[in-house]
Structures are given as C-alpha cells and as structure tokens.
Amino acid sequence: MTTSTRGASKVPAVLVLEDGRTFRGRAYGAVGVTFGEAVFNTGMSGYQETLTDPSYHRQVVVMTAPHVGNTGVNDEDPESGRIWVAGYVVRDPARIPSNWRSRRSLDEELVAQGVVGISGIDTRALTRHLRESGAMRVGIFSGDNLPDADTMLAEVRRAPEMKGADLAAEVATKEAYVVPAIGAKKFTVAAIDLGIKGMTPHRMAERGIEVHVLPATATAEDIYALDPDGVFFSNGPGDPATADHPVSVMRSVLERRTPLFGICFGNQILGRALGFGTYKLKYGHRGINQPVQDRTTGKVEVTAHNHGFAVDAPLDAATDTPYGRVEVSHVCLNDNVVEGLQLLDQPAFSVQYHPEAAAGPHDAAYLFDRFVKLMEGQRA
Ligand SMILES: NC(=O)CC[C@H](N)C(=O)O
C-alpha cells in the first residue's frame, strides 16, 4: 500500500555548521532541534538502510542524491529496530512515494520516530563545503520561532565532537540473542555487537552459521563459554580510539588463534589490537559505489562504505606484530585508505567496508565465504 505525504512542509528550518555557514530550507520529518556531525552519503538508493544503520548514531546525514523518499518506507529493509541518524538533510523529498512494498512515506516515518530533518537546501553546495572543509558539527533548527543566528551557532559549537566519542554501548544490544543458521548448522560464531546491522548475522546464517550476538560489554569468558568456531566484531559508531574494551577482548581472541573476522569498527579494532593507530578522515567514505582492491587477488570490487575513521598501517610491506605478520589486504582506489587487514600467521582478517551490502552491491560477499573457510581450516 502506498500512502501520500502531507505535502511539502511550510515550516521554516535552518542548518548551521560550526564554521558559521548556514543553509535555509523547510522542516522535513519532526520539527525541533538536533545536533551531530555533518557527513554526506553518496548512495542513490538504500535510504532506509542508511537511516537505520547504528553506525550513523550522532551523525547528521546529508544525501547527495537529490530525490529522497521516492520508494517510501517498507517493513523489510531496516537494518535495526529504529532510525539512528541524528538528523537528515535532503534536497527534494518525494511528495508521493510509490513502491509495492511501501507502507508509509519517509516524512511520516521521520515524524513518527522524532527525527529532525531539513529539505529544500542546496545539498550539492553543502557537500562541496564539507568536502573542502571536512566533516564538522552541525545543528538543524526548525519551527516558526527560530533563535537568532549567534545563539544557534553557539549551540552548535557546544555540541559534542565525533572525535573522542565512545558510542558503541549506546547502540548495542543489552542482552545476548541468537540468529539461527538457515538450513543445517555448520558453525557457531560469537558476534560482538558494537552497532551491528541486521544483514550481517543474516549473511552468516545463510552460510550455516549460528550467530550468538553478544553485547559490546561481553568478555573473553562470555565468548569462550559458547565454544565458538569463530569470533566476529561488528561495525559501530564513534571513535575507535575509545574502544579499549573491545581491543583487549580481541587480543584474547588473537592469543587463542580462534578464526576472527571484523567489519568496519571491527577492522579498526583489529588495527588497534595489532598496535596500529587510527585517525579521523577529512570527510569519510559513505556511499555504495566505492572502488576497493582486494590485493590478495588483485580484483577490484565496488563496495558499500560508512566510515569516518581509518587504520594507519603501512600499505606496502607486512608488519610484524605480537600476533604474527599482518598485511593490508584491501585498499580504497579513490584515496589509498586502508580497507582491510589480513594476518599471515593466523586465521584473522577484517575489512573497513560493508560486505553485507545493505544497501549496496554484492561484490564483497566472498568475504563471508573466506570466514567460513577459515573456520573449516581449523577443523581440518
Ligand atoms: N560503520 C562503522 O563501523 C564505522 C566505524 C567508525 N565509527 C567510523 O566512523 O569510522
């Protein structure tokens, strides 16, 4: 069923960046005030998956695609139980969503979930500004009586920064749960939830893995109580430099040489566990068409990304670590950012991007098969 929107909002809204640049538009979604880190996403589709990806917690997402909401909102595509973005910025919202799966309009969904957005602004100009000046704090203010410009700017500058933010525990499950294997069960995996997307355990379940999703606070004892064939560290929001607990848990896993796979935040945690630093990218990678080379095969894949930080590891030589040698296995062809790590002396690897591909192309699905092979190898 398709429902129509209420039509374009007449309520004024203003977006204020921390450097003072201001864009005026109309309220989209809930009317109110919100703050976060302004980032842009270049995906032409998949807005439901973007909105519900817990890694976007505390980020205000600017869509570079000019039309957003065309296919409405369905009940199948969310990657978690709620919208996580702190705010949403679009150029031209669909007035009449049209899709056989649509249940309601995106505007209605944003209102229902209390997500403050803005529409009708020049998102290309805003994106170019973020590209030149870097991701920065932002506020969206909507309503008929807006504060004066100086007050709004002062409020934006008081908002917390993403650098130094420790957010995984705010989005992760509080209770462990199990995603059963689809078909015959072949393996048990303990998955540390730092903000996991729903498609990730699903991609494992499709391969005969029973996934035990554990809270971000899980310890090595919690993991090994399950006698797992493999351990997985998920994506998640915030600055990896703050993730001391998952880093120490991962080191215990590396010491035991259990097959290990990490995605996104999980890749940054592996980097840290091995002794590398992480750093904030100027404006990050967010979209569904980023070219990555798998240097273990030479193949180039088109991939889904959502990261604002990256691992600082040497690209061209293996590095000795307390857990054996490690190589940069994947690299982004746009900017040579480290996109994957592969241990050479034990069964552990990770990628900075999203092989679960929700949304995005399925080029990188082979990484789940690689994880299965590592677990098969341990049994052989
Ligand atoms: N999707 C993720 O796991 C993001 C990891 C981390 N919060 C970053 O922004 O780089």
Automatic annotation (TrEMBL):
Q: Name one GO molecular function term.
A: carbamoyl-phosphate synthase (glutamine-hydrolyzing) activity
Catalysis performed (reactions) = L-glutamine + H2O = L-glutamate + NH4(+); hydrogencarbonate + L-glutamine + 2 ATP + H2O = carbamoyl phosphate + L-glutamate + 2 ADP + phosphate + 2 H(+)
Which InterPro entries did the record assign? Answer: Anth_synth/Amidotransfase (IPR050472), CarbamoylP_synth_ssu (IPR006274), CarbamoylP_synth_ssu_N (IPR002474), CarbP_synth_ssu_N_sf (IPR036480), Class_I_gatase-like (IPR029062), CPSase_GATase1 (IPR035686), GATASE (IPR017926)
Q: What is its EC number?
A: 6.3.5.5
What are the positions of the active site? Answer: C264 (nucleophile), H354, E356
Q: Which Pfam families match?
A: CPSase_sm_chain, GATase
Which pathway is this protein assigned to? Pyrimidine metabolism; UMP biosynthesis via de novo pathway; (S)-dihydroorotate from bicarbonate: step 1/3; Amino-acid biosynthesis; L-arginine biosynthesis; carbamoyl phosphate from bicarbonate: step 1/1
UniProt keywords (A-Z) are: Amino-acid biosynthesis, Arginine biosynthesis, ATP-binding, Glutamine amidotransferase, Ligase, Nucleotide-binding, Pyrimidine biosynthesis
In this protein, which residues make up the domain named Carbamoyl-phosphate synthase small subunit N-terminal? Answer: 11-141
Residues that coordinate or bind L-glutamine: S55, G236, G238, F265, Q268, N306, G308, F309
Q: How does it assemble?
A: Composed of two chains; the small (or glutamine) chain promotes the hydrolysis of glutamine to ammonia, which is used by the large (or ammonia) chain to synthesize carbamoyl phosphate. Tetramer of heterodimers (alpha,beta)4.
Instruction: Give the matching NCBIfam families.
Output: CPSaseIIsmall, PRK12838.1
Tell me its family.
Belongs to the CarA family.
Q: What is this protein's name?
A: Carbamoyl phosphate synthase small chain
Organism (species):
Streptomyces syringium
